[in-house]
Amino acid sequence: MDLLNALVALLNFVVIPATAYGAQLALGALGVTLIYGILRFSNFAHGDTMALGTGFVILVTWWLQSLGVSLGPLPTAFLALPFGIAATAAVVLLTDRGVYRFYRRQKAAPVILVIVSMGVMFVMNGVTRFVIGVEEIRFADGARFLINANEFKKSTGLAEGLAFKASQAQTIAAAVLVVALLFWFLNKTRTGKSMRAYSDNEDLALLSGINPERVVAVTWIIASGLAVIAGTLYGLDKSFKAFNYFQLLLPVFASAIVGGLGSPLGAIAGGFLIAFSEVGLTYAWKKVATYVLPEALAPDGLAQLLSTDYKFAVSFALLIVVLLFKPTGLFKGKSV
Amino acid sequence: MNTRNILLFAGMAALIVLEGSTTFGGIFGGSWNTALFILNFGLLSAIMALGVNMQWGYAGLFNVGVVGFIALGGLAPVLIATPPVTEVWTAGGVGRLVFALIVGLGVIALAIVLNHRLKGRVRLAALCVTLIGGFFLYRALFDPAVEVIEAFNPATNSNLGGLGLPVLLSWPVGALLAAGAAWLIGKTALGLRSDYLAIATLGIGEIIVAVLKNEDWLARGVKNVIGIPRPVPYEVDLQASPAFVDFAAGFGAEPVVASTVVVKLLYAGLFLAILLLLTAASELALKSPWGRMMRAIRDNEVAAGAMGKNVTGRHLQIFILGSAVCGLAGAMMVTMDSLHNPGTYSPLRFTFLIWVMVIVGGSGNNWGAILGGFLISFLWLKVEAWGPAALEYLTAGMDPASPLREHLKDSAAHMRLIALGLVLLLVLRFSPRGLIPEK
Amino acid sequence: MSFLAAENMTGGYGAADILHDCTLTVDKGEIAVIVGPNGAGKSTAMKAVFGMLNLRKGQVTLDGQDITALTPQDRVAKGMGFVPQVNNVFPSMSVEENLEMGAFIRRDDFRATMEQVYDLFPILKDKRRQPAGELSGGQRQQVAVGRALMTQPKLLMLDEPTAGVSPIVMDELFDRIIEVARTGISILMVEQNARQALEIADKGYVLVQGANRYTDTGEALLANAEVRRTFLGG
Amino acid sequence: MIVVEDLHKHFGGFRAVDGASLEIAKGSITGLIGPNGAGKSTLFNVIAGVYTPTSGRVIMDGEDITGLPPHELFHKGLLRTFQIAHEFSSMTVRENLMMVPAAQSGETLWNAWFGRKRIAEEERALAKKADEVLDFLTISHLADERAGNLSGGQKKLLELGRTMMVDAKIVFLDEVGAGVNRTLLNTIGDAIVRLNKERGYTFCVIEHDMDFIGRLCDPVIVMAEGKVLAEGSAAHIMENEAVIEAYLGRGLKNKVKAEAEAEEARHESHGAQPGLGDEAGQGGAA
Amino acid sequence: EDIKLGVILGFTGPLESITPSMGAGAELAMKEVSDSGKLLDGSTVTSVRGDSTCVDAAAATAAAERLVTTDKVNAIMGADCSGVTGAILANVAVPNGIVMISASATSPGLTSAEDNGLFFRTAPSDARQGEIIAKVLQDRSISSVAISYTNNDYGKGLADSIQAAVEAAGGSVSISAAHEDGKADYSAEVGALASAGGDALVVAGYVDQGGAGVIRAALDTGAFSTFMLPDGMYGNVLEEKFGSELDGSFGTVPGTDSAGGATFLEMATAAGFDGSSSYAGESYDAAALIMLAMQAAGSSKSADLAAKVMDVANAPGEKIYPGELAKGLELLAAGTDIDYVGASAVELIGPGEASGAYREYEFKDGKITTVGYR
Ligand SMILES: Nc1ncnc2c1ncn2[C@@H]1O[C@H](COP(=O)(O)OP(=O)(O)OP(=O)(O)O)[C@@H](O)[C@H]1O
Ligand SMILES: Nc1ncnc2c1ncn2[C@@H]1O[C@H](COP(=O)(O)OP(=O)(O)OP(=O)(O)O)[C@@H](O)[C@H]1O
Ligand SMILES: [Mg+2]
Ligand SMILES: [Mg+2]
Questions:
Q1: Beta bridge partner(s), residue D174
Q2: Residues C187 and C74 in one domain
Q3: Under a CB-based contact definition with an 8 Å cutoff, are residues A38 and A222 in contact?
Q4: Which of A197, B119, B297, C174 is least surrounded by Cβ atoms within 10 Å, i.e. has the fewest?
Q5: Are C40 and C191 in contact (CB under 8 A)?
Q6: Are strands E318-320 and E338-340 parallel, antiparallel or unpaired?
Q7: Measured between alpha carbons, how far is B389 from B373 in angstroms, rounded to an integer?
Q8: How many domains does chain C have?
Q9: Is residue A265 part of a domain?
Q10: Biased composition, Basic and acidic residues: where in the chain (chain D) (predicted)?
Q11: Are residues C75 and C160 in the same domain?
């Protein structure tokens, strides 16, 4: 019986990675859920907006680094964030002008906007690759670990290591902070409320003197901010590769939807649900069981419910089960 | 159909003919082979688009698990037409596998019965015991059976093999497989609405593809099955046949070209026949009181229910029909490729691209979906060549040695997606409700 | 010159015109009521006055100023308030937020106005935190009117404010409308509870097929037997 | 005909219907009135199978129909209209009506493919019937208009028209009158009476227009706060103090004094204006 | 004559980051030959690129169809992923009688594909590598390993053959689990792998795909410190990405102790691309083989050159290294036999696939150092 080692193993391989991954998903899902909540369509271009924004951040980071600027233990990319957000917001606002506004005026059905956003996705996808290329880029600097696995082993004398990366901590902190801000903004500020009003009933918002173009612009700007923050943190933790950002889209959508579309809290809950089900349900309990159980009972097999081949399948299955009981997500989302 | 629509279809046909007959400065291929390939691909896509249009256009069901149904349909040619692997039958693998599957179904059936018969806490406990116990029992039977099957010649087999029947038979079987899955899914998930149904179906699609990728015993998983039998002759056989060579010479054609064109034409004939049949059936249905009822349900489910229409039942019906059509197309596609390659089933390609076809064509309208299928297929296949060419043209004025130009040319392949996106946006800009909108 | 003068409005949603040379005017502090059969174009006329319809002909002036070319939200800024006939609440926002949205263009403290609205419709105070989409039909109607009152407009336009509200609330509402008018605010409303509405009206319009059929004082219209029979249900 | 036993419908903690028991007699035109938010529409929705009740039973002709889905209730002859119109907005007005009748043979795929002739005949008959209904509702010129483009009142008429397409046993009308021109409403009232007399339909009518209720309904049930407050003949109900207090009010009379004061002020600012004098008092609940 | 060669690779899609170097490798060989002016009396060779997307069989087939029937290419270098390669082979190459040499399709299934003698590959079948890896592990006395493979025919096929070989040699495989390329997160995979344990982790993936992600996560959590890296994981980027974190890890990559590999790296650097990127050398060799076979056949037609591919690739004859294509062409013109070695020590066996000589390397102080050849 070695509860301590079992606990550390569980923390190291399940709890910490899943929490960090969940926060990453949640940050992406916040952007998706915001667009859905206010502009009422699922924005397929969000993944590529994240990629483009991160691309800008990387370019500025390189420039800053070439000037010798650094943030000490924090990644230089944080300094570049505002530039990245500004540039991305500009691109996104231009896209809105050139593309989405037309359909808004037409009062096109949401599904048309979804398909249009796919068109935008393709274009942005290509533009990102023109700007920054397809290669994998690592742009993280600063301290890498808060707790390093080997040092942890040495200092505690345990058999199991525990790792906690700085980027993981930053992501979790950012997710919590951003969701609180967004929640506060949407529910307490005048602009936030006017955005919700616009999403509820566009015509009536007009009759209340709300300027729809302003609402739309603010929404896009915030969404760009969210996308760039999410993309940058993800890139710092893993690495930047344009294709992966596109792939991130599916779990991000899943998080936003299972949490309840339009709800910032739902995005967080959804992100964690997906992450924990992916990591937790396919975890092989062999190691933990060996520590906890007496030797005679230790499993020979992996003590794994399902192989990791099925991790997406498992998380999606869980998602479906949740939806069967809560048809509009955990936090009563919208549906158009 | 009005003149405008006929013109649109004529335009589409003209594009394909141009592709076959002229190069027009590199815009078209000038090869009947590519033209016919695009045509066949367009026919397949049109059928898939019809299936999605049934679900979305008629009934408003937001199914984005299309890829799953296409993939399931694609399983059929492998299971029906490839030669049987007698070794795993004699080794007892198949028998044990079937037994395991029957036990698995039995467990589920028992759970359903218990769910109906019992109440309250007892029910929960009984269900948990049955399902968990059943799962382990099933795995205990299933895993060794799979081991036997997968142990046989992993490089080329490790699967059940097929039944060695004619491949055409696999097309209806593909439809049935997809329909069966749709029934199961529809029973559970159709209570969901809009994007929530979307993500549920997306998940189911992913699950189906995951199973196809990872269950090697079924169809070799990601290791692919190649050389699936064809319903049409092989080009090399035609080239070797003196009769055919004479026949080709009669047209003044080279045997190689003639054989490739003839084979594609044969496929085109088969596909076209099926497309026409499906279109006729869909049009008849849509223009009848059945279609009116479906539109009513799509417009307002609550009111349709109050007016005596069984919304759930109809949703299930259309979900099954649409999925079956997708499954059929999946089987046809695998047959044409003579390759079963589950790695290829990405949602972008087989769900969202099909959706693009439906919306660009005009949802709710069969002709729209078909036109969208052809147009988007054409673009999907053609932009591959257009993108780099356009870039070449754009950068022609630049200094050949300039690093920017080099960079741009290196990225030329990505013009593919930009071009596709731009064309998509343009089409939707000029006909926001699709090329042939629903009236 | 009337405070609001919408003259010779002609136009519609698509090819066919709905309105034909329709004219509506309201003076300061006056209550004008539009009645007419279903589909006469009453709501359309209201929308036209508010700039939500493309007019082929005619012009709208407010306080002597030509506003024909202004967008609806600019008209709100000029002091016009409107309660549409349908879709007149923000369903997922709470009752209180609905009222706040009514005061969106106000920069001053609007809590007093909100209290007045709650006094007028006490049920709304109870349901303050509930999403408006979960209210009963009549309650929604009260939210809709309350939202418009929050704007403190100079011209208040109401499209069937009493549809679906109970008699007691209707009376309250009409009473309040009189009070509001007395503070110098002009009221233009469409009503199917036409007799009650015409009783408090200074001016009445009977609209048929997009054109003015009768225009008179409320009293006179009520006294007109022909009007009573064909449009007011006897 | 319909018996509601101790019905509850709670939304979260809120009791929209809170133990209502009532009976709708066969062949009657029962009125259902009550203040806004009394739970009338919720009660309708529970009876019509849109909501499942928290507790209680609904019995129709001796059969427990609690919790049956709406489409099955329709086949049992129970029809309803919606307070907020639920038209099929992208279909034409005529199609809105034609889709209603049950058991159309063209609604099965098999017939849609192979029974074209039979369908054509049925469709002709349906179209004729629909046109009659539209005629009656005075909107036959709109037969080919998209229902989404109708005016507010016209949509309410369409709601009513749908119930006239089939032979119902009982029809629940949720505020058909709101937004409908009063002259037309009188005609509709006549039609309801006729359907009731000639075809034996039972009606249950929610309405806030007391003229209409008074002319048509017997008995009248009054709901308040989710419970039945009173029941009786229309005349009887209108004199019930509790009902007047909660629902009917006393018209604008109690404001007359204020009116008189206002009179002077108005004379100053506007010159001669039509007074609102005593006449106004006759409004409201009259 | 202007000879056209098709280059069909997944320039967009999951392999988009390694295909530019592969394309550049093939084109480097073409340029070398064209510049020499020695091929078939001064013919030039130009490349026509097609996008296989790696995953979409239809798009790949269409691209190949365009190359063959519109651009009239004489032969094809490609495709990259085994799935689309099979599709192009069956639907375009065989019907049209076009030679196809793939640099990276390693699936054992392709060995037995119906190819009419038209299909070759400069990458060895995975079956062979499994045995080599088992030996390497045995020599390093690593008896138990965990395997993480990329979930496609390459990864799965390789994992299968490694597992079979390791177990046959008396070792054990604690777990063999897939990872999907291009996904957001690999914590679940690493968690399961760590739990299963083992002396080393075999990562049968791609260096710029999920494979690197798995290593990253395994290193960060301290789950494994020794990695065995098969060919798909080889590349200079490993040094950049992981540096000395990988010290003690080792791998195998096709190669011989001939000078070819190093020469190619230099040539690539001069030409401005990364020659160490996966399959770049094999791509150069594939293109070179096609052109040498043309010279040997005295014709640029696929029908003629197909029979010569094996001859020029294998002994006997004079050895030809990268950068010596001109010499090879001259020798062939003179009727002398050659044995093309190229960048990846080409040796074709059986139905036309690389025999599989491997280089074993190891990480020392953050650098890749060669241990020996097998
Ligand atoms: N979905 C819901 N969630 C929460 N509360 C609800 C919901 N639907 C209705 N209610 C509440 O239930 C009460 C009864 O509503 P109902 O619509 O039945 O009233 P009603 O008697 O029809 O009123 P009206 O005459 O205004 O139509 C109201 O107070 C309303 O706020
Ligand atoms: N969006 C629209 N598109 C096309 N026609 C419309 C539209 N809205 C209304 N109409 C038509 O315009 C005419 C007038 O409609 P309007 O809504 O103004 O009537 P109304 O007088 O307000 O009637 P009600 O008393 O029933 O509300 C109707 O015949 C209606 O069918
Ligand atoms: Mg109106
Ligand atoms: Mg109601």
A1: D206
A2: yes
A3: no
A4: B119
A5: no
A6: parallel
A7: 24
A8: 2
A9: yes
A10: 261-270
A11: yes
Contact state of B418 with A120 under an 8 Å Cβ cutoff: no
Say yes or no: C35 and C54 in one domain. yes
B337–E55 C-beta distance less than 8 A = no
Residue E81 has pLDDT above 60, yes or no: yes
Long-range CB pairs of C14-22, under 8 A, 24+ apart, other chains included: C17/C56, C17/C210, C18/C44, C18/C210, C19/C44, C19/C45, C19/C48, C19/C55, C19/C210, C19/C211, C20/C209, C20/C210, C20/C211, C21/C57, C21/C58, C21/C211, C21/C212, C22/C48, C22/C58, C22/C207, C22/C210, C22/C211, C22/C212
- The count of domains in chain A is 1
Place of tokens 């099979």: E86
Q: Which residue of C has its CA nearest to D137?
A: C38
Name residue, tokens 């080997």: A150
Interval B31-52: pLDDT, tens: 888 899 899 999 999 999 999 9
Q: Chain E partners of A309 at a C-beta cutoff of 8 Å?
A: 151, 177-178
CA distances from C87 to A193, B164, C144, E251 (A): 18, 62, 9, 68
B97-155 pLDDT, tens digit per residue, is 888 888 888 988 888 888 888 777 888 888 888 888 888 888 888 888 887 777 777 76
Is E241 part of the contact surface with chain A (CB cutoff 8 Å)? yes
**E-contacting residues in A 151-210 (Cβ below 8 Å):** 153, 161, 163, 165
pTM: 0.90
Is residue A336 domain-resident? no
Say what the pLDDT of residue D7 is.
93
C147 and C167 belong to one structural domain: no
Helix (H) or strand (E) holding C32: strand C31-35
User: Residue A177 belongs to a domain with what CATH number?
Assistant: 1.10.3470
Instruction: Report pLDDT digits (tens) over D49-59.
Output: 889 999 999 99
Q: What is the DSSP letter of A284?
A: B
Best to test chain A binding among B52, B199, B375 (most A CBs inside 10 Å): B199
Contact status of B422 with chain A (Cβ, < 8 Å): yes
A335 falls within a domain:
no
Ligand nearest to the CA of C128: 1
- pLDDT for res D251: 65
Ligand 2 pocket, CB under 6 A: C 13-14, 18, 36, 38-44, 85; D 142, 145, 149-154, 179
Distance in angstroms (rounded) separating the CA atoms of residues E100 and E119? 5
With beta carbons under 8 A apart, name residues in chain D contacting C165. 36, 208
| Cα of D142 from ligand 2 centre, angstroms | 11
> At B215, phi and psi to the nearest 5?
-95, 90
Q: C-alpha angle with apex E172: E168 to E174, nearest 5 degrees?
A: 140
Task: Give the C-alpha separation, B396 to B402, whole Å.
Answer: 11
Band (pLDDT 50/70/90 cuts) for residue D247 is confident
Q: Does the beta carbon of D9 lie inside 6 Å of ligand 1?
A: no
Q: Residue A53's pLDDT band (boundaries 50, 70, 90)?
A: very high
> Distance from B194 to chain A by nearest Cα, in Å?
6
What does the longest C-alpha to C-alpha distance in chain A come to? 75
Domain membership of residue C137 as a residue range: 87-151
For residue A285, give the chain E residue with the closest CA.
E195
- Closest residue by Cα to atom 5, ligand 2, is D149
ipTM: 0.88
Which structural domain, as residue segments, surrounds residue A14? 2-325
Give the tens place of pLDDT for each residue, B402-426: 777 777 777 777 777 888 888 889 9
Confidence band of D281 (pLDDT split at 50, 70, 90): very low
Give me the CATH number covering residue C20: 3.40.50.300
Q: Tell whether C40 and C97 lie within a shared domain.
A: no
- Are residues C128 and C147 part of one domain? yes
Which of C151, C172, C193 marks a domain boundary? C151
Is residue A332 domain-resident? no
D94 in helix, strand or coil?
Answer: helix
Domain boundary residue, one of C136, C151, C166? C151
